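Kindly inspect this one:
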Amino acid sequence: MFLCCWLVLVALIPTTLSTNPGVKVRLTEKGIEYGRQLGMAAIQQKLGSIKIPDFSGTEKVFLIGKVQYSLSNIHIVNVGLPKSSVDLVPGTGVTLSIGDAFISLNGNWRVKYLRIIKDSGSFDLDVNGLSIATTISIKSDETGRPAVSSDSCSATVGSAKVKFHGGASWLYNLFTTFIDKALRNALQKQICPLVADAVSDLNPQLKTLNVLAKVDKYAEIEYSMVSSPTVLKSSIELSLKGEFYNIGKHQEPPFSPAAFYLPPQNNNMLYIGMSAFTVNSAAFVYNNAGVLSLSITDDMIPKSSPIRLNTKTFGAFIPQIAKQFPGLMMKLLVKTVKTPTLTFEPNNATVQATTTVTAFAIQPNSTLSPLFVLNLEASVSARMFVSEMKLAAAVTLNKMDLTLDKSNVGDFQVGPLENVFQGVLKLVVIPAVNAQLAKGYPLPTIGKMKLMNTQLDVLKDYILIGTDVQFS
């Protein structure tokens, strides 16, 4: 996966759309340098696979005459790429340059001259001053995933020197100039195709990009590009859709992503900015799926709690309940009535939720008798964090407001119930929400990618994840 850390991110270029992204990614100089190191290791390995076929010829040597020679079993013993660079061409793309490279080979030689004299031995070939320059073409395949290829390549070999060993090698070293040129040409023809192969070898890794990542049985998140990458002098910025959808039903929410801009930070290899739009699109999806509700019974409340879900507890605040439904257990149904809304402010993430709480008495035959319906407005603070390759969160209750919607047990004052319902939220609802949020939601990733030294900051209208990257 040789140029993964930078080339993968440059490569995310499906059809350009004129819309704001929900997620932005920036690859910094530090990330590009890591990608260069991975790339050099892969290209070095690829050049180590150079195959030079056996070849033979005839050369005229002073005082000896015609010498017939053949070289066989030629193979690489060492490849060195001491100098290389990745250059960003603003507004254009990426170039990769390699200089002062060297390749060492050895093989066997055999000669025949004066018709009857035969000799053989081994030889070493040192290739120095090798230079390679290539540009990378990045396109989108039919699935919306990136595909890369070497668009252009040039390779030059500075020198190639053969030294014979064994037999009368001192004599044959006199005409190595002829062989040097032949071997240099044979090498030079193979270098660019091998570099092109090294670039193409990245495509299977690109196929692992989670352009559409499944979250659970209700939701998936799309990370396709909404515009071509922005190539700057020292960084590359990508614009991803970053939108949740119901599985099998891609319905757009009644709101759109607002423009946002990543701050000029470069301490980490990679920065991921996720807007409030992305998180709110998740809330829209789960609300549409009808899963933002929770049925609460007494066995879900810790035994140590003084709050019990029965008509005796609630009868202390609403006497009509104790009179009409004595000695019965109760059930609460908490259900959202509109999509919760998250807002990001510096160092603060807040969710506003509007729900109803319907209370029932559970009859001996298990039927439910409706008691009352309350409107509950709640505000919670969210702590966002990265867990492995996912964005997770945990919420705590800020405040709540209760009002009476309707009652089957006559009018009553809601105020005395606020402590009870605040306890129910803290003991049951918030832990249930946090258990779900702790499972996390996938970040854009490829292959066996690992995030390291990760930091998360909440800014105006988006969160910023700064991280280093490691590929295994």
About this structure: The chain has two domains: 28-205, 212-471.
